[in-house]
Amino acid sequence: MPSVLDGVRVLDLSWGIAGPVAGMLLADHGADVVKVEPPGGDPFRGTPGYDVWLRGRRAVELDLRDDADRARLFTLVDGADVLLESFAPGTLERLGLPADELVARNPRLIHCSITGYGNHPGHRDRPGIEGLVAARTGLWDAQRGETGGAIGYMHGEPEFLADLELPEGMEPGAPREGPIFTYSPFLSLGAAYLASVGINAALLARERTGRGQRVATSLLQAALCAQAGAWMRVGRPDAVGLRSWVFDRRAPKGFFRCSDGRWVQQWVPNPLFVLSSADGDTLALRRDVARVLDDPARIPMEPENIVVLAHYYPLMAEAVARFTSEEWTEVARQGGVPLQPVRTPEEALTDPALLAEDAVVDVPHPEHGTLRQAGILYGLSRTPGRIRGGPPRVGEHTAEVLAAPWPAQVTKPSAAHGSGEAAGGDGRPPLDGVTVLDLGFAVAGPFGTQVLADLGANVIKVNARRDPAWHASHIAYGANRGKRSIGIDLKTPAGRAVLYRLVERADVVHSNMRRDALARLGCDEASLRAVNPDIIYCHTRGFDRGPRSDSPGNDQTGGSLAGVTYEDGGCRDGGRPFWSLTSLGDTGNGFLSAIGVIQALYHRARTGEAQTVDTSILNAQLLVASMAALRPDGTPLPRPALDRMQLGIGPLYRLYRAGDGRWLCLAAIAAKHRAALRSATGLADDELADDGLADDELVADRLEAWFAGRPATEAFTVLDGAGVPVEICDPDFGRRIHDDPAMHAEGLVVRQQHPKLGSFEHFGTTITFSATPGRIAGPPPVCGQHTREVLRENGFDEGEIDKLVADGAVFEETWVE
Fold first, then answer.
1. Cβ partners under 8 Å of residue 701, min gap 6
2. How far apart are CA 145 and CA 246, in angstroms?
3. Taking 90 as the threshold, does the pLDDT of residue 283 lie above it?
4. Are 148 and 251 in contact (CB under 8 A)?
5. By the 8 A CB rule, do 600 and 536 touch?
6. What digits encode the pLDDT tens for the residues 405-427?
7. CB neighbours of 523 closer than 8 A, spacing ≥ 6?
8. pLDDT digit string (tens) for 717-737?
9. Number of C-alpha atoms within 13 angstroms, CB side, residue 395?
10. Which long-range contacts (CB under 8 A, 24 or more apart) does 360-368 make?
11. Nearest to residue 110, comparing CAs of 221, 219, 216?
């Protein structure tokens, strides 16, 4: 079976993390990706993850400062569909390769740029290194959240219950004040997702317009995405249900150590399940609750329940410590309670269920024979992905590629406007005219359809009667903007009949309900294809299709199964598991599903053939942990470890506290940076050589003393002036974004009106398209807000609508402004 991007030709001029991961996702689904490297190779080769992320490519060496090699690149550009690059702003122009000229040479070219900060004038010239962007944008400070939660922080309120006494071990993260450094490169991976979405959306738009365009995203935009549920400001911050304890820095994240020394994660906290199951000499299920969502013992989200959590935490920790992790996993499985073991990434790579569905695969490698690694992470039923080989050696295919370059692209007539199209697009968003029915709940499903809405899709959120409480929370507001809501009781025959009328006109149905629930409601794929055989049917899961297929899944436990919480807690150095508030489990699942849906639409536009899209939270977490790989003998590829205090990865890429109590992030990752750092701080040559360290602990001690001896601004001025990559951590960045004129001018934040909240300020554009710009259609809807409007559009008259409302088949939420 062909893959969806067979025949798509990609020039990859990127390095680091975001570009290579985006290129991997393209190559995994059929694109012919050619990596262009400078003489000697990409300077980031050897970075943990490159042995995975560079798979399936061909590689050429070109010196872009050389006229002859630049001419060779232009020949490749003429035949390419996509050019992916991660140069700092202005670099292409200095190399004589301005983006506008490249697109002018090849009007079908999609040029995708990934930078640190885009064109924001206050940040665009700063280093685009993961850790430094995280420091400058406040993401290191956001890892644990704020005392009292996100809404109080964003509105400048006093800390909520500031004098609450916490039991030992309850507060997440290392036992210290200050920002938290994570092992997972969340911003780079977020930018990789955004670039992948943008490229695939531009390919789909090209089917309509006949032309390529410029696409751009940044780590800054990934940071705004990562804080979608937190960095919002509203006119009525005391609206019922808006606040939660989840983003309170004191709130535990469900980690407990078992009698065998291993950790498990139980989320959302369910004290009575834990305490009753452990109430005896053996561990056994002693409560019978049919549905986890209906369990009254779950801790509600209202912020005052931080007190309840503080009461139960030591009791739960003591109970869990009496039995093994395997015993707890089994009793949770029996009870349908979300609890999973905390594994290493390497343990996840030996999971038979993941191997069975190619979420983990063995890939040829030129040095190691094969490497076991994260595999195909989203499925397309008619055009499945497949890995075409391991990473290439530097310049391995130079002669082959230059001897037989791709044929030059031929500009095709626009489907909408004919061959006279000159602007490269029609001004309509990439998914304009596409109707999506969103049957999802929580974050993992709805975030994916929010991505589609931002690309111009008409997303209709199908809400159930239980939804209003959840949809009033700030977390839900971060995953539902740009949609319209219809309230339908799918448990009634009349309600299902309404849904089927909507399915008749829909292009996509998207859901993350469990399959048994979908079947009971008549929303399974077979039932909906009988109504409309041309739909793209997207279903996302918590975990695998095997032994955990019936287990309740979420971002937190998916991260523990994949090894993400293990690495982010510095567990290899003796730390405790840590779940980040910028995690890419739920949202990563959403991104993977959105990419799959766009590719399925692309395939349908070219062939008329519909298909099914499938992914999971666990798959998304496998991508987060994809720097891990196993050799054929089962030993892991070496990679550095995060320290137990969550300060960083070695003394040259970590957080340091200055003398005034503020924190900085240092990133002396290249030889020239180490030389500059040595000169600026007085380190001796034998302590810090250009090619490495004599003693990590000694260098860390010396640097800690140097930073502690001066205020943060002085340390920054000295190091930045010497050419050492460094940033001051900014814990108030998120609080200022809505008052920054440049953020508004660049479309990075938006201000809208919401029926319950009044003004609603949120993150804005995450991907820019030069010819088919996306749109943010509106704020998140109130459940059932558009019930009558959507029914009218689908052919129901007023009498029918009134009867459906009266009979309870559909509903409209009422609220007081």
1. none
2. 9
3. yes
4. no
5. yes
6. 999 998 765 544 333 333 457 89
7. 439, 490, 499, 509, 511, 513
8. 999 999 999 999 999 999 999
9. 8
10. 360/622, 361/387, 363/52, 363/55, 363/387, 363/389, 363/390, 364/389, 364/390, 365/51, 365/390, 365/391, 366/390, 366/391, 366/392, 366/393, 368/51, 368/631, 368/632, 368/637
11. 216
The secondary structure of 337-404, three-state, reads CCEEECCCHHHHCCCHHHHHCCCEEEEEECCCEEEEEECCCCEECCCCCCCCCCCCCCCCCHHHHHHC
Quick: pLDDT tens for 527-557: 999 999 999 999 999 999 999 998 899 999 9
CB atoms within 10 A of CB 516: 11
Structure token digits, residue 746: 């660049």
Alpha-carbon distance of 643 to 110, in angstroms, equals 41
Residues 156-163 have a mean pLDDT of 96
Which tokens in the block code for residue 758?
């009044």
| H or E segment to which residue 18 belongs | helix 18-28
Bridge pairing between strands 82-85 and 110-115: parallel
Beta bridge pairs of residue 614:
379, 539
Instruction: Note whether 78 and 102 are within 8 A (CB).
Output: no
Contact 52, 627 (CB under 8 A): yes
Q: Tokens 């003394």 map to which residue?
A: 651
- Read off the pLDDT band of 481 (50, 70, 90): very high
Q: If you write DSSP's letter for every residue of 113-133 in order, what string do you get?
A: EEESSTT-TTTTTS---HHHH
User: What pLDDT score was predicted for residue 419?
Assistant: 31
Asked whether the beta carbons of 561 and 341 are under 8 A apart, the reply is: yes
Closest C-alpha to 438, from 471, 398, 486: 486
Record the pTM.
Answer: 0.97
The two structure tokens encoding residue 185:
């490169």
Q: Is 542 buried (19+), middle (13-18) or exposed (0-12) by CB count in 10 A?
A: buried
What distance, in Å, lies between the first and last C-alpha atoms of the chain? Answer: 55
- pLDDT-above-70 percentage for the chain: 97
Alpha carbon 291 to its chain's center = 28
The two tokens of residue 431 are 């998914």
Nearest by Cα to 559 from 659, 727, 428, 444: 444
- Give the Cα-Cα-Cα angle 546, 552, 555 (nearest 5 degrees): 100
278-300 mean pLDDT: 81
Question: Residue 816: its pLDDT value, please?
Answer: 61
Tell me which amino acid residue 625 is.
A
Strand partners for 113: 85, 216
Inform me whether the pLDDT recorded for 505 exceeds 60.
yes
| Proportion of the chain above pLDDT 90, given as a percent | 93
Grouping H, G, I as helix, E, B as strand and the rest as coil, residue 450 is: helix
Omega before 268 cis (within 30°)? yes
Q: Residue 664 has which token pair?
A: 């900085």
Residue 459 near residue 484 (C-beta atoms within 8 A): yes
Please name which of 28, 73, 16, 37 lies closest in space to residue 55, comparing C-alpha atoms.
Answer: 28
Other Cβ atoms closer than 10 A to 634: 10
Q: Over range 276-281, report the average pLDDT.
A: 96
Residue 159 dihedral angles phi and psi, to the nearest 5°: -65, 135
Which residues, 6+ apart, have CB-to-CB distance to 171 below 8 Å? 144, 249, 250, 252
Task: Give residue 416's pLDDT.
Answer: 44
- Separation of alpha carbons 712 and 715, rounded Å: 5
- What is the per-residue pLDDT across 709-721, written as a single tens digit (0 to 9) for each? 999 999 999 999 9
H-state helical runs in 138-270: 150-154, 186-209, 219-226
- 549, 553, 555, 561: CA torsion to nearest 10: -60
The CA angle 354-355-356, to the nearest 5 degrees, is 90
